[in-house]
Amino acid sequence: MKGAVLYGPNDIRVEDLDDPRMIEPTDAILRLAASCICGSDLWPYRGLQPIDGPTHMGHEYCGIVEEVGSAVKSIKPGQFVVGSFATSDNTCPHCRYGYQSACVHREFMLRAQAPFLRVPHADGTLVPTPGGTPSPGLVPSLLAASDVLGTGWFAADAANVNPGGTVVVVGDGAVGLLGVLSAKQMGAGRIIAMSRHEKRQKLAREFGATDIVTERGDEGVARIRELTKGIGADSVLECVGTQESMMQAIHATRPGGYVSFVGVPHGVDLDGQRLFFTHVHLHGGPAPVRRFLPRLIDLILNGTIDPGKVFDLALPLDQVAEGYRAMDERRAIKTLLQV
Amino acid sequence: MKGAVLYGPNDIRVEDLDDPRMIEPTDAILRLAASCICGSDLWPYRGLQPIDGPTHMGHEYCGIVEEVGSAVKSIKPGQFVVGSFATSDNTCPHCRYGYQSACVHREFMLRAQAPFLRVPHADGTLVPTPGGTPSPGLVPSLLAASDVLGTGWFAADAANVNPGGTVVVVGDGAVGLLGVLSAKQMGAGRIIAMSRHEKRQKLAREFGATDIVTERGDEGVARIRELTKGIGADSVLECVGTQESMMQAIHATRPGGYVSFVGVPHGVDLDGQRLFFTHVHLHGGPAPVRRFLPRLIDLILNGTIDPGKVFDLALPLDQVAEGYRAMDERRAIKTLLQV
Asked: Residues of chain A with pLDDT > 70: what percent?
C-alpha cells in the first residue's frame, strides 16, 4: 500500500509500504474510509519537534474492519468503526476513570495516512457506528471525531463549560473551532473566538461563536476583560500550545475560572507563583477521546453537529505534500486525505 | 501598643507602635483575643522573601469589635469576630463566585501580631460567632479558622476530596495537618500524610490520617504508587510551596486526579509539556477563607473539629522571637501569641 512518511522539515513523501499485519491477538486491521492531517503533524513537519529518522504519519481514522485477532470480542469484520488517536484497553483503572488516553496500554497511533491500519486493543479503542456503514457524506464528521472533535470536546469539558457561561477559545485551528462547537453543545451563553483569519472566523460563528476577538497576547487579554466587564471568562480553551497562547488563556480567565489546554505544549513554562495568584483551575492533556466517542458519533449520526466542516481541502493521498503545505501556510484549516 | 516587626533575617522584634485608628468608614478596630505566627511568616524571617524595610507581621486574628466606621452595617461593637487573612467586600463578582481572596478590594492583612488591629471592609471580611463571645478554650480553634484551617479546607476542596477518595497530603505544617482534618470531614476514605516528624505524624493520625509516608521526592512518589496499587491518588494537597513538593504532589496523583496548591510557591516552575502528560487537574491560590468561615465556625462551636490542636506552643507577645525560632527549627508546629 501507499503511505505518508516524513523525512524531515517540509519533506513529506508518499511511499510504498508493507500492508499492516496482525501482531497481537487483540489487534484489528481497518480499511480506512479516509484519513487526514492534524495540526499536531505540523510540529515535526516544521522541524519544531525532532523525529528519529523517517516517520510514518497520521493518527486520525475511521473505516471498515477487515480482520480481527483471536482475542477480539466485541469488534467484528465488516463493522464501520471510529477510533481514538490513543489506544486503550478501556478496562484499566485510568480508563475506568475516563482517562483512556492515559491507559496503561496506551499507544499513540501512527501510520493512519494510508489505506490500511493496524489498531491495537481493538475492543477498547474502536467504537462501531450504530446502524451499519454510514453514508459517505458523514465520513468527514466521523473522521473528525477521532481526534479534533474529541479534543475540542475535551477542551470544553475540561474547561468546565456550563449552560450560560462565558467561554473564550484561544486558537482558530480545527481543534479550537470544534471547541467552539462543543461549548455551544454544552450550552455556553457566550462564546468568544480569538481569530484574525476571516474564513476561520466565519466557521467559528457558524459553530456558535457570539464574538470574535482579533487581538492577541496582552491586547487580547485586555479585550476579553473589556467584553466581560473586567471579570474575565468562566472557561477558557487553550487550543494552540505555545507560551503566548497559554498565558493569554490564563489571564483571560476570572479567578476561580477554568483553563483547559489540549494541544501538546511546546516551550511552555509556568511560573508557579504567577499561576497561584491567578486563582484559575488548570486541566489538560491528550484528550480521552474514547470517553466521548459514543456520544459524538450519536450527535453526528442524528445530524445535531457537522464537525466535518473543518475539512476545507480534500486531496488524494498522493498529494499529501500539498495537504501539509496548505495547512502550514494556513491556506487550509484541515486537509482530508482520500486513501 | 506593642507589636511584632521584622527587621531582617532572624531579626523579629517587639516594639511600641501607635494604636490602629479608623481610616475608612468601612473599617473596624478589633481587640484581639489572640494572634499567632504563620508558616508563611517564615519565608521573610528566613530571608527567602525580600522585605522592604522594617515590616509589621501577623495576618491571623479573632477578637472583639471595639469600634466600627460609619459605613459598617452588619458588624457591631462588642461582637466576637473571626476574619480572613485577606480582606474582601464580599459583594464584587469574584467574591460572589466564592473567590473572596481575589476580591477587587483585597488587601492582605498585616500587623495582627499585636493586641489591636484595623480591619478594612469589616462587613465583607469579618464573621461574628453566633451566640456571643465563645469560651476561651475555643479561641485557638477560631484563630486557626482565620488562615491555617481555612487554607487546609480550601486545599481539600480544591483537590476535589470526595467521600471514599484516596487523599495524599504533602507537607506536615499546620496547613497540611488541617488539610488532613478537612479531608476527613469531607469523607475521604484514605488519607496519606507525608511526614517524617513524629509529633506531626501523631497529630496527623489524630486528625484522620490513615497512613504515614516518610519518604520524599521520587521515593515518596514511588511509595504512594505502591500504596495505591500503581494508580496514584485521587486528590493531592500540596501544602509546602517548593519545587520538590509540587512535583511530588503532581506525580503522586492519578491521571484525571486533582492537585491543589495553597502555599505561596517559591521558586516553582512547571514545564507545560510535562504537566500535560500527567493529566492532573491543578488549582490553588490564596485560600478564599471567607467562603468557608461560617461553616468552619459552626464546626468548631459545635465541637465537631478541634483545629486549635496545631498550636503546640503559646507565648506572650513579648517572646515573639522565641515563637519564630521554635517554628523555624521545627520545635513547634505553630505558635500562639497571647496579646
From this structure: 100
Distance CA A176, CA A153 (A): 10
Interchain CB contacts (distance < 8 Å): A and B: 114
**Which segments of chain B belong to CATH 3.40.50.720?**
153-284
CATH 3.40.50.720 fits B153-284, yes or no: yes
Strand-pairing partners, residue B6, are B12, B55
Residue keyed to cell 491521571: B255
Q: Do B285 and A278 touch (CB under 8 A)?
A: yes
What is the residue-averaged pLDDT of chain A? 97
**pLDDT in tens for each of the 339 residues of chain A?**
999 999 999 999 999 999 999 999 999 999 999 999 999 999 999 999 999 999 999 999 999 999 999 999 999 999 999 999 999 999 999 999 999 999 999 999 999 999 999 999 999 999 999 999 999 999 999 999 999 999 999 999 999 999 999 999 999 999 999 999 999 999 999 999 999 999 999 999 999 999 999 999 999 999 999 999 999 999 999 999 999 999 999 999 999 999 999 999 999 999 999 999 999 999 999 999 999 999 999 999 999 999 999 999 999 999 999 999 999 999 999 999 999
Other CB atoms within 10 Å distance of the CB of residue B96: 10
Q: Does residue B279 come out as left (phi exceeding 0), alpha (psi in the -120 to 50 range) or beta?
A: left
8 Å CB contact of A272 and B265: yes
A189 alpha carbon, distance to own chain's centre: 23
Q: Do B231 and A265 touch (CB under 8 A)?
A: no
Which cell numbers hold the place of B10?
532572624
Q: In degrees to the nearest 10, what's the CA dihedral of B142, B146, B147, B149? A: 30
CATH 3.90.180.10 location in chain B: 2-147+288-338
CATH topology of domain A2-147+288-338: Quinone Oxidoreductase; Chain A, domain 1 (3.90.180)
Residue in A with minimal Cα distance to B280: A283
Q: Which residues in chain A are classed under CATH 3.40.50.720?
A: 151-284
Residue B285 in grid coordinates: 491560590
CB atoms within 10 A of CB A215: 14
Q: Do A98 and B256 touch (CB under 8 A)?
A: yes
Minimum-distance CB partner of B272 among A268, A272, A281 = A268
Chain A CB contacts of B241 under 8 Å are 272
Q: Is A136 exposed, middle or buried (0-12, 13-18, 19+ CB in 10 A)?
A: exposed
Which pLDDT value is given to residue A160? 98
Helix (H, G, I), strand (E, B) or coil at B40: helix
Q: Cβ A256–B98 below 8 Å, yes or no?
A: yes
**Residues from chain B contacting residue A231 (CB–CB below 8 Å):** 93-94
| CB-based burial, B230-266: b 16+ in 10 Å, e otherwise | ebbbbbbbbbbbbeebbbbbbbbbbbbbbbbbbbbbe
Fold of A151-284: Rossmann fold (3.40.50)
Chain A contact set for B48 (CB, 8 A): none
Would you call B97 and A256 a contact, using CB atoms and an 8 Å cutoff? yes
Q: How far apart are CA B106 and CA A158, in angstroms?
A: 29
- The runs of H, that is alpha helices, within A216-338 are 217-227, 243-251, 272-278, 289-301, 320-328
Q: Which residues of A159-178 are buried (b: 16+ CB within 10 A; e: fewer)?
A: bbbbeebbbbbbbbbbbbbb
